[in-house]
Specification:
The protein is mainly α and 486 residues long. It has a single domain, classed as Amino acid/polyamine transporter I, CATH 1.20.1740.10. It is built from 18 helices and no strands. The longest helix is centred in the first third of the chain and has 36 residues. The two termini are 13 Å apart. Its main location: membrane. It is a multi-pass membrane protein. One of its GO terms (biological process) is transmembrane transport.
């Protein structure tokens, strides 16, 4: 058996985050990042119209299974990588410093862009909501900057404050959708009855199933960020794996159930036409039809709070990436400082806010549409980047356990990660092929987004060669006391 690398030196005092987050708190944060109501109200109608029609709910099951394979290896490696760097730590330990540093840069690009995408969308949605209730018609970016200010305050404070806010918002948005699901099922759906299309292979494979799978996988972005909260977890070796599985299960079941309920509400023969006619308001119209006008109004309000919960969640994740990279020498060391009273990554949080302000200001000056351009372009970059990182993490798991032998369980270390590599590689191919679609139909922008991500990955190898001492923890962050498991 190969020798396990020496353990990383502990982070200096005052440069570690602390907390007592349990499984529930972490699940709230990562599920909130996935923005469940935003996915159900925004992505599900598009997936039905442009993807595989009434068979679309099955794509969420397929996505959950593929990501579960990833999660098995990811969580098996958690106890051997006591570093809150998540993706880049795992990839660095498994594949080497260059890959680790490159993945760190890709992660920064991905989470900066996904946060920017949601910031653009929430500015548009909040402005529309205020106007709908008789308020002033203001530019979208003013509302976005207001959201950034509130997020900056919460991100500066201790993580437990954010977890409480996210918990309340998440319960509200999930609750209203579950009520709608229950009423649709209770009434037996449309005149056609409850849909069975998602159980029929010919329906699931009809239309454009590749597009459907692409939209479905994008809805899970955020669940993989559980490991970034390692230092703030009550018992990270137990809490992080449990939170990862719980978040994936909750998201997968919720999306599948809700997409099926939406299809059932209109019927297999009519749902595609309805989704294509007005995808943005389809779920609100469904709520009005089954629950009444008040419920439709509530959904419009909760859509905004869902987007805010996603912004806050991604802010927390990105702040902790900057914090971890500050402690490993990849970005300025100031980013690795924690607040004396709040025990928060306050400098990294301010950096994250500043980047958000700069990105949104640039978008506003350029006159970009907050949904058709800011949201779609940035979400396209983030989707490809994060799926690519999950694929590299699966490969890193296979290499790490083969090299060290610290865990000899076949399912956790070979079979599940191997299946994850195959599944994620297929998803990544679909995303790359359809990247121009995600980028608003522009081939040039699609190619540009791909080049940006490749440059970020390649930049890690340049950084590793130019600064050999950078991110030393990437190849030393394993536990020497980890006993082999048979």
């Amino acid at each position: 058996m190969a020798t396990v690398s020496e353990p990383a030196a502990p982070a200096p005092a005052g440069h570690r985050l602390t907390g007592r987050l349990g499984v529930g708190a972490i699940v709230f944060m990562v599920v909130a990042a996935a923005a469940p109501l935003t996915v159900v109200a925004g992505t599900v109608p598009i997936g039905i119209a442009a993807g595989n029609g009434p068979g679309y709910p099955a794509t969420y099951l397929v996505s959950a299974v593929v990501l579960a394979f990833f999660a098995v290896g990811f969580t098996a490696m958690t106890r051997h990588v006591p570093n809150a760097g998540a993706f880049y730590s795992y990839i660095g330990v498994g594949l080497g410093r260059g890959w680790g540093l490159g993945s760190a840069l890709v992660a920064l690009v991905s989470y900066v862009t996904v946060q920017g995408a949601v910031l653009g969308y929430i500015g548009f949605a909040l402005g529309g909501l205020v106007e709908g209730y008789g308020g002033p018609a203001l530019p979208w970016w003013l509302w976005t900057f207001l959201v950034l200010a509130i997020t900056a305050v919460l991100g500066f404070r201790h993580i437990e404050l954010s977890s409480k806010v996210l918990g309340v918002l998440l319960v509200a948005e999930v609750g209203i959708v579950l009520v709608l699901d229950a009423v649709v099922v209770g009434k037996g759906g449309s005149d056609e009855g409850l849909s069975t299309a998602f159980l029929n292979p010919s329906e699931v494979l009809s239309g454009a199933p590749g597009l459907g799978l692409m939209f479905a996988v994008a809805g899970f972005i955020g669940f993989e960020a559980t490991a970034i909260f390692r230092d703030e977890a009550r018992d990270p070796d137990r809490t992080i794996p449990r939170a990862t599985y719980a978040a994936l299960a909750i998201i997968g079941v919720f999306y599948t159930l809700s997409a099926w309920a939406v299809v059932s509400a209109w019927g297999d023969s009519a749902v595609v036409a309805e989704a294509a006619a007005d995808p943005g308001n389809m779920v609100a119209t469904t709520a009005q039809r089954y629950l009444g006008t008040a419920a439709a109004d509530v959904i419009q309000v909760l859509l905004v709070t869902s987007l805010f919960a996603a912004v806050l969640s991604f802010h927390n994740v990105l702040s902790r990436y900057f914090f971890s990279l500050g402690n490993t020498g990849v970005v300025p060391a100031a980013c690795g400082r924690s607040h004396a009273r709040h025990a928060s990554p306050h400098v990294a949080s301010l950096v994250t806010t500043a980047i958000g302000v700069l990105l949104m200001a640039t978008s506003a000056i350029a006159g970009l549409d907050p949904v058709l351009e800011v949201f779609t372009w940035l979400a396209g970059i983030a989707s490809v980047g994060i799926v690519g990182l999950m694929l590299l993490a699966c490969v890193a798991v296979l290499v790490f356990f083969r090299r060290t032998g610290v865990d000899r369980r076949p399912w956790q270390t070979v079979v599940a990660p191997g299946l994850g590599v195959l599944g994620l590689a297929g998803v990544l191919v679909l995303l790359v092929e359809n990247l121009p679609l995600l980028m608003g139909g522009s081939t040039a922008l699609g190619i540009g987004a791909g080049v940006l991500l490749l440059l970020a990955l390649g930049g890690g190898f340049v950084l590793a060669a130019a600064r050999p001492s950078a991110a030393r923890d990437l190849v030393r962050a394993t536990r020497s006391d980890a006993a082999p498991q048979i």
